[in-house]
Fold this protein.
Amino acid sequence: MCAAWPPHWSGLRRRSPPRKAKLILRAKRVPARRTRLVKKPRGLRARRNFESGGAKLKAKIAAASGVKTAEGRRVALFGGTFDPIHSGHVAVARAAERRFHLDYVFFIPSSRPPHKPAAELSAYEHRFAMVALACSAHPRFVPSLAEASVNGAGPRVFYSIDTVRRFRQQFNRRGDRIYFMVGADSFLHLQTWKDYAQLLQLCDFVVANRPGFRIGALREVIPPALLAPAAAKATRDSRVIRLRDTVVYLLETVASHVSATDVRQRAEGGQSVHGLVPPRVEEYITKQALYRRALYT
């Protein structure tokens, strides 16, 4: 049985509620909040979106260049192919951030490093996208295009000394300090780098340790003329080599058995890379089907 009509509606045809009732009902309808959905950049769009927009990413980099206290800014430059960036890279960066109280760590994927043929590398756009995804989980990690191809006009060789000089122009205030992060194996081949003696005088070095490595091996690579006088070298910290203008630090307790080669081989064979790379990087590798071709032997 239908509900009774209100008294003042009796005898009338059934119709919609009066205007006042309509207004009350309309006022109770609260429109759902609209949320703009932004797709995450993938593949070739990652770098293009960064250069043309990428508001969050650009804001992060702008903040990294901002003014700090009179003590100056402490930044680290972490270069490499990052093919792909893996958990070992992140662990080293976090350890350096804590030990040296870094304001920012710039991850600098090289479009073409001097010691590796371009044919062996994944597309720069993919490598930069993975670095950006890994950095998104850490407020002090900043992806950098410092060694990207100019205007996309093909790969060119980038040298570390040129990159450091570029950052020194940006971080040139009194008290600013730049740390160059590198693996122990790479540091042992420092003498093959372009203008390596000048590079050692431009910034401090942070060398990521590996099992069985000793700091004495680092000292053998450094030209004796660059070492600080014997009186200045005296220090209680056995992980430090003092040069005349800079310092070389050995970063302990961050040795990792993860390697980019292992990650690529697992992905190529269809095996899981869970735990070897940051979660968002794992998702990217899966969706883009990276390394599922016989490029690496």
The first strand starts at residue 74 and ends at 80. The domain at 60-65+72-288 is CATH 3.40.50.620 (Rossmann fold). The CA atoms of residues 81 and 109 lie 5 Å apart.
